[in-house]
Amino acid sequence: MSEGADDDGGAGAAARSRGGSPRGDGFSPSALGTREHWDAVYERELQTFQEYGDTGEIWFGEESMTRLIRWMQKHKIPLDASVLDIGTGNGVFLVELAKFGFSNITGIDYSPSAIQLSGNIIEKEGLSNIKLKVEDFLNPSTKLSGFHICIDKGTFDAISLNPDNAIEKRKQYVKSLSRVLKVKGFFLITSCNWTKEELLNEFSEGFELFEELRTPRFSFGGRSGNSVAALVFQKTELTTLGHFLEEPHPEGEQPMGSCFC
Ligand SMILES: C[S@@+](CC[C@H](N)C(=O)[O-])C[C@H]1O[C@@H](n2cnc3c(N)ncnc32)[C@H](O)[C@@H]1O
């Protein structure tokens, strides 16, 4: 298992891509924003896991997982709260959540190899009751809804680098998030591509900042700052247009995250 330090573990640095010829949002399109890239990554990691038992990259390092779980403990999030890990990758964060006692957790990823890898890792850990699904978060199934907590570690970053209309995809991400998260539910995002101020702007519609989590600071050449932003948003009740954000569910369909509150 590669243990990134609590900087961005090397992986985050690779995702930062504001150089070159930026689009209007300042990001240069990158392979990191494509499904082909992630399929190739997780096919390789799946093979490595099968051969050597190595679970692969933990984005933003082990400390990024501890930081989120510490926040959940501090705020006494019930262990049966429904938690969704958006773009779960190898699912190692799901394993951590389960080890801390969370019992209603779901991981989604649009890469089938990522979900297969997560399943293999979860099985090896002897854990059960973790739900895994291949889902494109930009087009989520109606069943994916009713979550009390949504986690994003590097997925919004990846989507922001998509070469094909990333601005629209980011808007779609916010809409999907509004759909799957309960009113008053929490969204915990860790990002190396966006600053706090930029994230506040991206999630200004239907969400409000609840807390900023401490991340390591750097100091270089007389300037200082954070290499990673970690924020907790809370979903508000109404959009600025006065509409409720949660959508009704088709008759008889039980939302996946519905058992809490
Ligand atoms: C930087 S990796 C982070 C993986 C994991 N969250 C972690 O912290 O180790 C980004 C993940 O987002 C997934 N992803 C990107 N776009 C997605 C989308 N539209 N729907 C679902 N998953 C997506 C990728 O397949 C990849 O697993």
From TrEMBL:
Its main location: cytoplasm. Residues 13-30 have a biased composition (Low complexity). It is found in: Cytoplasm; Nucleus. It catalyses: L-lysyl-[protein] + 3 S-adenosyl-L-methionine = N(6),N(6),N(6)-trimethyl-L-lysyl-[protein] + 3 S-adenosyl-L-homocysteine + 3 H(+). Signal peptide: none annotated. InterPro entries: Efm4/METTL10, Methyltranfer_dom, SAM-dependent_MTases_sf. Keywords: Cytoplasm, Methyltransferase, Nucleus, S-adenosyl-L-methionine, Transferase. It comes from the Eukaryota. One of its GO terms (molecular function) is protein-lysine N-methyltransferase activity. Residues 81-210 form the Methyltransferase domain. GO terms for cellular component: cytoplasm; nucleus. Pfam families: Methyltransf_31. Residues 1-32 are annotated as: Disordered. Its EC number is 2.1.1.-. Protein-lysine methyltransferase that selectively catalyzes the trimethylation of EEF1A at 'Lys-318'. This is EEF1A lysine methyltransferase 2. It comes from Delphinapterus leucas. The gene is EEF1AKMT2.
